[in-house]
């Protein structure tokens, strides 16, 4: 074959590929044409174990619905995801179905970027409010109208290494962690684990990880009944005494007693726990896949009730939303809702990845109850505290950065608790004073 | 004889255009036609958005609302100038520029000088110093995050093996910027290195021969010939470097997210945070405009500086 024939062949091939690719999102985007009607375009933000699991669930849907193509797109978690979702919707090219954290959904709704999910449409697909965990469902209502279908509740949990905790005498006869209650009991448990590991009692992400710092602070501060902002974020109601109590406690664990490293990033905190250099690890339950893959002996349980008030734990929910689109046809709406329902029906699969299902037919099932260690912390769904509502709060928001950075600086020993509270007050006041951009 | 006078030909190797080409009538129209595609793109994608940025900075524009929003006048500017977070991010950008520019210029010069003198395997040194530059920022950030990881990282092992207490490279607010600067120097040195190498090769060998016949040692040769002959390269390198450093974003966003406790958040990340996370595009435009003016000022200094050099030649 000479060069000319080869070139001609390549051009022909490229042309054919171009024609065949008309329905692909890339070509549709470049040529500014709509995707074929009847396709469900779906965006999510799941990486790691969650990402693999979600791909399985989408594959299951494809197998069961060969007539409905699904274009699934995964984007990076956090700001980049929400920016793209917002801009795609403003630009009239949104996906049909998208994942949103419950705490970001409110801002999207206020920005008029979401479709209302009318009860009659949901009922047609076998979804009714009473079939969901009450706390998660109600958190997704705006003026009594639904805008998000909660898929799970994902709290932070306490991971523990069963070998280390066994050696430290922290396990009961059944091999589960003995209940821990109160600040001293938790510190003692960490200290005993530290004696076994010779390095640390516990770890959690601190450097470049304000989200985890905020989640831990919010859990303990919530157990004291504290609130940070009120009236949709227009008023700062930070309780200095309670915040001080939490920050001083956290500081004592890292700076004074060195039970936890005060400087470690998200991946490093995981690596230390996985390598047996710490007995405990505080993180979102979604990291279960990481430790299963590491084939280490571990259990999971609720973050203890440290300060003895009503038990609460910081959580968020992954929800499924339908971004607003003006060209919505009834047929397309039904396809989208059918896809949503198909994901809900696979809640057991999702629960295996650590998340507490909000879909009660699964959450109340015998199979889920038998699923350990996942069901050990199912109570977290009813004790969940979410980010307070405001246009600047929610998963990956600047609010979480402001809160978590100050907490991290205290745990790292760079700020005194008192100075951290002053910093928080000044930054929160600045945010609270701004008019909402949505 | 001491060699201090400038040579009688331009050092960069450009041959000046014959004077009649640029000024002869009848050439303007084809020239403009040839440039038209570029001019259209330039207007559409550079001048247009820049003007739109100025316009938005006077409004409360939101990312998720159509239109410009309500008129704000200069309120966005007064808010930025009165906000400690804005000043902190501007200072971080400036501090990063101060930390990175001198090593990136001086080291690049010294390494280029040595690589230029190597007789054998010169290609290896060129490649070795330039290679990091072609790596994407995300890859560089990942490599260095592994090195800096507390307790487990490579640097941690080295430092503790020598018996020192391990510094918290990215976790200590006083140290994090230095760590980022170190990463950046390793990563971007290659570009300046190549510019200097090209400049060095333009210096006529006869100058060195003449100098050595007159008894000038290697150090004197560098001081009296190399450094003055490279002055135009140096001013180019310095200004390109200052502008590049002022525009820092990637490595900080990936490696520290602007932390710990906002101590490494540069101006661009501040703009990113307020515009994309908070949806406040109008305010972000005002901050961008202020930042744009800063970079413009730096570029103006360069133009003035090089014009003086041109006059001297």
List its salient traits.
heterodimer; A: 438 residues; alpha/beta; five-stranded mixed β-sheet; 19 helices; 16 strands; 47% helix; globular; B: 313 residues; mainly alpha; 14 helices; 69% helix; disordered N terminus
Task: Note down, in words, how this protein is organized.
The complex is a heterodimer of chains A (438) and B (313). Chain A is of the alpha/beta class. Helix content of chain A is 47%, strand content 14%. Chain B has 313 residues and is mainly alpha-helical. Chain B has helices spanning 19-23, 28-56, 75-81, 84-117, 122-130, 137-148, 154-161, 176-201, 205-213, 218-229, 231-246, 250-255, 267-277, 281-312. The longest helix of chain B has 34 residues, at 84-117. The interface between A and B is large, with 49 and 36 residues.
Low-confidence residue ranges of chain B: 1-14
Question: What is the residue-mean pLDDT of chain A, rounded to a whole number?
Answer: 91
Distance between the termini of chain A: 62 Å
Cα Rg of chain B: 24 Å
Largest sheet of chain B, if any?
A: none
